[in-house]
Amino acid sequence: MPRPHVYNTQAIVLRSSPLGEADRLLTIFTSDLGKLRVSARGVRRPTSKLGGHLDPLTCSAITVARGKTLDTITSADTLKSFLPLKSDLERLAHGLYLAELVDALNPLEAPNSSAYSLLLEGLEGLGGTSNPDLLLRHLELRLLAHTGFLPELHSCVECHAALTPGNHLFSPQAGGVLCPTCRPLHADAVHLSVEALKVVRYLSSATGESAIRLRVPKPLAREVAGLTSAFLRHVLEREVRSLAFLRLVGHGAPDEAVSSASS
Length: 263
Known about the structure:
The chain is of the alpha+beta class. 37% of the residues lie in helices and 21% in strands. The protein has helices at 83-86, 89-105, 113-126, 132-146, 194-205, 208-211, 218-236, 243-249, 258-262; strands at 6-19, 23-30, 34-40, 59-65, 71-80, 169-171, 176-178, 190-191. The strands form two sheets. It has a five-stranded mixed β-barrel with strand order 1-2-3-5-4. β6 and β7 (176-178) form a beta hairpin.
């Protein structure tokens, strides 16, 4: 059913770019309509009433008018500004990375209320947790699940055989875990420790609250980060651009273990 001429929704701003002299082009993720590209007219003027209500990583209740090429936001009221996230550079880097993942994994105008709820929960959690890297691993895996890209983690993705303890392999190209017999089919397959597989399985199904309570040694955290980063790079066919910023300001950014997971 086509949207009405004027409609209301709740949305989180994923990214923003200048449009003309005073407008902005926004990519937003809504609670009921999925990802949209809309304009915000005059928002760059100091007198604009929309102002900070449409900053990136802000959740607002918005009213939108349909247009011939772009729908236009006519009013906005902030619901959540995620100030703890925005007041710390490293946490902000995590939030921008999460927003880019949501943007990259979701096509335009494809409703995904589960992914929206996860984004909302993730931005809130990243602003308060003392373990943002592990929470981000959880969010990566849950986003993959909500968008249909979660890798196979419970049996060989090729022959569907049960996994033998201690002989785990992982191939982004194959889409998950491989048994040793099927390894020759995929040159990118790498060894996956039993502990890393257990952590990834847990994070892919746990709640965010449970995920951040998990205690993971740094070497194991790097292995898990390498696995998710390599798999996301395969799914997206590129590296997440905001990863460079996360690498610059953060510790334990996802790419730190990529070499061990792709060599």
